[in-house]
Amino acid sequence: MNDSSLYRYSHHISLPQVTRIGQQKLTQSRVLIVGLGGLGSPVALYLAAAGIGQLVLVDGDQVDLSNLQRQIVHNTAQIGQDKVISAQTQLQALNPEIQIITYSYRLEPEALQQLITSVDIVVDCSDNFTTRFAINAACVRHGTPLVSAAVQRWSGQVTVFLPAYSQSPCYACLYPNQAEEGETCSETGILAPVAGIVGSIQAVEVIKVLLNIGESLCGKLLLLDTYTLQWRTLKLPKDPACLVCSSVNFIREIR
Ligand SMILES: [Zn+2]
């Protein structure tokens, strides 16, 4: 790290759990962010500012006026632009030291699998169940850590899956019925800063997993109700009958 980088990240380096070694590790890390909307915005901004060396951005949508109420990585002048390009402009201005790779289309499962093998961790900031299940299946298959979250109205939830560990649950353990289609925030509404709070927690979890420090949300589901401002943490055990992760671990055990 040169003098400018040391100064840029000095408030990280001062943390005894991070130090110069940890910051160096962050600058060598590769993080995939799927979805550059309400959650993806704070995730991408904080991870770019934190100096993650390479951010891979995936989103097939364009910036719409109604996005700007909460999707703070985009701005009014960028309405109509691909979200990944709009985000890249902001992130690169915030931190020119990092590399940003963009995919301005929805990735087919095979392309997603391939991409997931090349990153250290995946952040699911998508807004639909089909994408979430596809990301989960690919992460389980390749043992890639996954930070998952969802928000709607005044509420949010966050959890972490570490599929390389046999005790870790996966997204399908949480939602065993894959056919269940949830509502998206465009249908139900969402208070703007709720996405900011929950996305910021995702960014914290990414950094902790990358540095292997602290206590992650693996095996736990953090629930936030901002209307009453109450946090709850539920246990999220692995489902031994899970169709996605139980068979993978079985295969690993018999090898
Ligand atoms: Zn599972």
UniProtKB/TrEMBL annotation:
GO terms for molecular function: ATP binding; molybdopterin-synthase adenylyltransferase activity; sulfotransferase activity; thiosulfate-cyanide sulfurtransferase activity; ubiquitin-like modifier activating enzyme activity. The chain crosses the membrane at residues 31-57. Pfam families: ThiF (PF00899). One of its GO terms (cellular component) is cytosol. Signal peptide: none annotated. It catalyses: [molybdopterin-synthase sulfur-carrier protein]-C-terminal Gly-Gly + ATP + H(+) = [molybdopterin-synthase sulfur-carrier protein]-C-terminal Gly-Gly-AMP + diphosphate. Pathway: Cofactor biosynthesis; molybdopterin biosynthesis. InterPro entries: ThiF/MoeB/HesA (IPR045886), ThiF_NAD_FAD-bd (IPR000594), Ubiquitin-activating_enz (IPR035985). Catalyzes the adenylation by ATP of the carboxyl group of the C-terminal glycine of sulfur carrier protein MoaD. Belongs to the HesA/MoeB/ThiF family. PANTHER family: ADENYLYLTRANSFERASE AND SULFURTRANSFERASE MOCS3, UBIQUITIN-ACTIVATING ENZYME E1. Homodimer. Forms a stable heterotetrameric complex of 2 MoeB and 2 MoaD during adenylation of MoaD. This is Molybdopterin-synthase adenylyltransferase. It comes from Thioploca ingrica. The lineage of its organism: Bacteria, Pseudomonadati, Pseudomonadota, Gammaproteobacteria, Thiotrichales.
